[in-house]
Amino acid sequence: MDAGSLSAFFQHTRAWGRAQRGIELFQLAADAMSQLAAVDGGFFIYRKRGVETGGEPQPPAIYHRFGVFADGPISPSVETLMCADLALGVPTGRWLLVEDVAHEELHSWLTSLSVLEFGVWPLYSREEVRGAMIAVRTAPVVHITWETSHALMEACAAQVSLALDMIMAVRIAEHASQRDLLTGAWNRLGIERRWPRVLEAARADCSRHAIVGIVDIDHFKRINDTYGHPTGDRVLRLVAQALQDEAGPDELVGRMGGDEFVVIAWSESPDWRPRMLSMQRAIRERSRGTCGVSVGGSVFGLDGDSFEDCYSAADARLYENKRWRKEQGESPVS
């Protein structure tokens, strides 16, 4: 690899570390291949890892088609092949003449796009192949030696792999900063970061209503003072687990601090009571009657148009519930 190409490539990759999303990184890498390696088109195959689903890889998908692949559909046979083999069934890490591509439908598709050379470079994550960088040329290249071309593509794939891991590491750290370490529920930051998604879903589906619920543990200070903080921690975890078990997959449970939890849930009717009273009963039953909670709630759009307004309305109703329960001498579990 000649010194000029090497310098130009690494000058280009300085910006890659600032990419916050994979698609931004793929766009930068595509620009580098087009400008420095005489690439006329390509795309990226990648199996994303969902941070909120434990990092499990998702099915492979195609990202950022550029050049000759920018317009027109991807061949269905290629998508099928991709799911079976991220490398599309060809030798990786080198340029191939299209006539040497054995897969008949892949060969036909590339030929229809006037592709002369085709290459697949694996993308790694934690020593596993997690995707592939696809590149093609539609004309002979005379101004770049084979060695330089090969080295540029290898370096590009290596830098993309490294940058993808950096993006994932940042996302994992951000995700961890939004979790309550004791209970595993979201913390205040985690709830606030996800509230815009709730608004978007609420506006897209008028058949259900977003409710903001608050849960407060009875006599929590007395539990800590009488039985010790380890017991108090167990109570917090019990309440969090009960709420998470009652919540649906698109609902949120957060610990706002101390013994107070917040629930973002959905209801078919504009009434917060059924869901929150159900959670109140679930906690009582899970603890075999040894742990009671007060609850309050509000309905987005009726009690407020922001998280702060809904939270304030729910907080006021929580204290109404708490007073009612003190007057009754027992938790209202029906």
UniProtKB/TrEMBL annotation:
InterPro entries: Diguanylate_Cyclase, GGDEF_dom, Nucleotide_cyclase, Rev_trsase/Diguanyl_cyclase. It is an enzyme of class 2 (transferase). The keyword Transferase applies. Residues 208-334 form the GGDEF domain. Pfam families: GGDEF (PF00990). Keywords: Nucleotidyltransferase, Transferase. GO terms for molecular function: diguanylate cyclase activity. CDD domains: GGDEF. Gene3D superfamilies: 3.30.70.270. Its EC number is 2.7.7.65. PANTHER family: DIGUANYLATE CYCLASE DGCM-RELATED, REGULATORY COMPONENTS OF SENSORY TRANSDUCTION SYSTEM. This is GGDEF domain-containing protein.
